[in-house]
Amino acid sequence: MLPAALFPLLLSFFFAVTHGYPQGSGVCTADGPTIASAGAMGQQVTPPTFKLFAAGNVSTYTAGGANLTMTLNGDVGGTFKGLLLYAANALDATAHVGTWSGFDQAAYQTLDSADNAPVANCAAYGAGSTLSHRTADVKQFPANFTW
After folding, report:
1. DSSP letter string over 61-89?
2. Element (H or E) spanning 8, and its range?
3. 3-state helix, strand, coil in the chain (%, to 5)
4. By CB neighbour count within 10 A (0-12 exposed, 13-18 middle, 19+ buried), where does 99 fall?
5. pTM for the full model?
6. Which residues make Cβ contacts (< 8 Å) with residue 115, sequence separation at least 6?
7. Which of 11, 19, 87, 144 registers the highest number of CB atoms within 10 A of its CB?
8. Considering the chain, what is the average pLDDT of its residues?
9. Which three-class secondary structure state does DSSP give residue 43?
10. Which of 15-29, 35-49, 101-115 has the highest mean pLDDT?
11. Domain ranges for the chain
């Protein structure tokens, strides 16, 4: 059984793979109206051609337990430009849970600063808890992140 905090992570990511703003996501949550209000962030591929999964076939997660390696995988040779990744207890949560690490800091960033607008400042959702791209450069599947 997936824990409450991990299940929305999968849904949140599903709605948030786009071409993206060049410097990172312009929003902190992956709901359609919020994304639409942020302007031209590019199109999401429909149907999605990617999967997000926890390494090692993890079926449960305990808060404060071992970190999880999350892998974004897609079509062989597939690419993407932007993402918004977070875990929450509900899709409309006002707080994201956990923190992100173990990512290529030249390609990705946590959204914790107001200094790089129009990129969203998601610090109010939890420091280090919202991950996005740093550049609009093409990124290859698979991509790994530690949560």
Report:
1. --TTS---EEEEEESTT-EE-B-EE-B-S
2. helix 7-14
3. 10, 20, 65
4. middle
5. 0.77
6. none
7. 87
8. 76
9. coil
10. 101-115
11. 1-56+67-147
Closest CA to 145 of 67, 71, 56: 71
Q: Strands, E, within 1-147: which ranges?
A: 50-54, 69-74, 79-80, 84-85, 108-110, 131-133, 139-140, 143-146
Q: Confidence class of residue 32 from pLDDT cuts 50, 70 and 90?
A: low
Closest CA to 91 of 20, 23, 35, 22: 35
Q: Which amino acid is at 127?
A: A
Q: What is the mean pLDDT of residues 16-40?
A: 66
User: What percentage of the chain exceeds 90 in pLDDT?
Assistant: 20
- Rounded distance, CA 15 to CA 85, Å? 10
108 pLDDT exceeds 90? yes
Strand partners, 97: 87
- At residue 18 the predicted structure's pLDDT band, cuts being 50, 70 and 90, is very low
Q: Hey, what are 41's tokens?
A: 């962030």
What pLDDT is stored for residue 38 in this prediction? Answer: 57
Among residues 42, 22, 26, which one has the least CA distance to residue 136?
Answer: 22
